[in-house]
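PROTEIN DESIGN WORKSHEET
SECTION A - STRUCTURE
LENGTH: 243
TOKENS:
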């Protein structure tokens, strides 16, 4: 069973985070091949996805990094945000993916809270329907490419990443009654319940729901943010680098 990993580091501190990930894998979970696109895009990813001056290219690139693992002959592919690093061998995560066909984790929100009006129309669903769908976290995505549903999700994720419409939208909705921060504010929806748009994460959440993949896993099983890990955590996510 061939397991391959992928990450992307475009600009800013992300190349340094990728370097940290590679170093940590060498010490904590050796034996895994990691494909890292550092200030480069994986094959097929759209270039210069810019809307109202904001660059959404890195979000659109993520599905194509996972697809590149499949094209390289992986049986299991794991896509990691650059801020991850292993704290122990990741074999339990790989075993979970082999058993269930995927790894996705709960994000604690509903898709209805993080989906633009434009993307909602592309999905052909109502806002109330979107509020019935769990939003998953796309910071770590694992797929078993021997599964038909896994390949369908990945193909659709790539297709929507390349359509120039479904992924791009501001992180923060100017019409929201409640937000988490104010990053990249703009029009997302007329509905004040909508806090913003989550790009690759929003789309993936809908696709996983459509194809009934799962189960979704609760943190800190397998993955966790720094400081919230447990004995069940193999990968920790933290976007800061301690010198």
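SECTION B - SEQUENCE
RESIDUE ASSIGNMENT:
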């Amino acid at each position: 069973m061939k397991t391959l990993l992928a990450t992307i580091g475009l600009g800013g501190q992300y190349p340094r985070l990728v370097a940290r990930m590679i170093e940590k894998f060498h010490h904590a979970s050796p034996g895994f091949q990691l494909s890292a696109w550092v200030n480069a895009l994986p094959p097929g990813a759209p270039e210069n996805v810019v809307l109202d001056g904001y660059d959404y290219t890195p979000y659109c690139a993520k599905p194509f990094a996972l697809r590149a693992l499949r094209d390289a002959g992986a049986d299991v592919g794991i896509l990691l945000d650059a801020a991850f690093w292993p704290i122990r061998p990741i074999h339990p995560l790989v075993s979970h993916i082999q058993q269930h066909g995927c790894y996705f984790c709960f994000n604690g929100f509903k898709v209805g809270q993080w989906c633009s009006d434009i993307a909602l129309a592309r999905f052909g669903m109502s806002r109330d329907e979107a509020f019935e769908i769990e939003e998953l976290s796309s910071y770590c995505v694992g797929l078993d490419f021997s599964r038909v549903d896994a390949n369908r999700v990945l193909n659709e994720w790539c297709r929507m990443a390349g359509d120039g419409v479904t992924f791009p939208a501001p992180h923060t909705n100017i019409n929201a009654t409640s937000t988490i921060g104010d990053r990249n504010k703009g029009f997302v929806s007329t509905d004040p319940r909508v806090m913003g748009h989550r790009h690759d994460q929003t789309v993936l959440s809908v696709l996983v729901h459509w194809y009934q993949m799962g189960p979704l896993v609760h943190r800190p099983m397998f993955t966790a943010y720094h400081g919230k890990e447990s004995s069940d955590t193999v990968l920790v996510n933290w976007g800061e680098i301690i010198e």
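SECTION C - NOTES
The first strand starts at residue 3 and ends at 9.
The longest helix spans residues 14-28.
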